[in-house]
Amino acid sequence: MATRYIYKRDASRLFIALSEQGKKFKIYLPQDAYPIINDEEKEITILESKYDSFSFLWNNKKYFAQIKSKEQNKYRVIVNGVEYFFSIESISSYLRRRMLEDSSDSKKTVFINASIPGKITDIFVVEGDLVNEGEPLFSLEAMKMQNEFTSPITGIVKSIHVKVGDNVVKDQLILELSNINE
């Protein structure tokens, strides 16, 4: 029988930062670990933090950052005397905005189909969940064997088209994922 996975998904600490020049940074701030920026862990240590300013150490160099202005999700930040403008969004608001901007673009949606016929024995996700590439999505029993299907991308579960106990045929649509890396 397949292993039952329990994941703690916390999209509240996953953000997209967009610079005025159009550069996109995917930022994950885990508790008790270094930040991950564009899937790469950065050894950044916060030295001091106040209401509108903080200092941090990165690559053995000390930086001082000050938030000069904030209007809704738009920030003007000074880092060591250089001014930067960013728009910060939660992953869900970023995806919602992108879907509204171009809802006809099907490259952003990944369709997960059953590669074999069988019976759905478990679904490990719910609509709206953030999933990482390689995380289990559902389990399907075929010929008395449990087959676990994993996510091919990092994304958000857009919709689930089956429920536990459903019998499915080969190539039947099981769920849809919204790609957050497109």
If you had to describe this structure to a student in words, what would you say it looks like?
- The chain has 182 residues and is mainly beta.
- It has two domains: 11-101, Glycoprotein, Type 4 Pilin (2-Layer Sandwich); 106-179, RNA polymerase II/Efflux pump adaptor protein, barrel-sandwich hybrid domain (OB fold (Dihydrolipoamide Acetyltransferase, E2P)).
- The chain contains one helix and 17 strands.
- The strands form three sheets. Strands 4-3-2-1-9-8-7-6-5 form a nine-stranded antiparallel beta sheet. The chain has a four-stranded antiparallel beta sheet with strand order 10-17-15-12, with no helix packed on it.
- Strand 2 and strand 3 (36-37) form a beta hairpin.
- The longest helix has 11 residues, at 91-101.
- The chain starts with 13 loop residues before the first strand and ends with a strand.
- The model is unreliable at 1-12 (pLDDT under 50).
Summary?
This protein is mainly beta.
Terminus-to-terminus distance: 35 Å
Principal-axes geometry comes out as: elongated
SS strand fraction:
over 45%
How many alpha or pi helices? 1
Give, in order, the helices and strands.
EEEEEEEEEHEEEEEEEE
Question: Widest sheet: strand order?
Answer: 4-3-2-1-9-8-7-6-5
The number of domains is: 2
Keywords:
four-stranded antiparallel β-sheet, OB fold (Dihydrolipoamide Acetyltransferase, E2P), Glycoprotein, Type 4 Pilin, mainly beta, 182 residues, disordered N terminus, 2 domains, nine-stranded antiparallel β-sheet
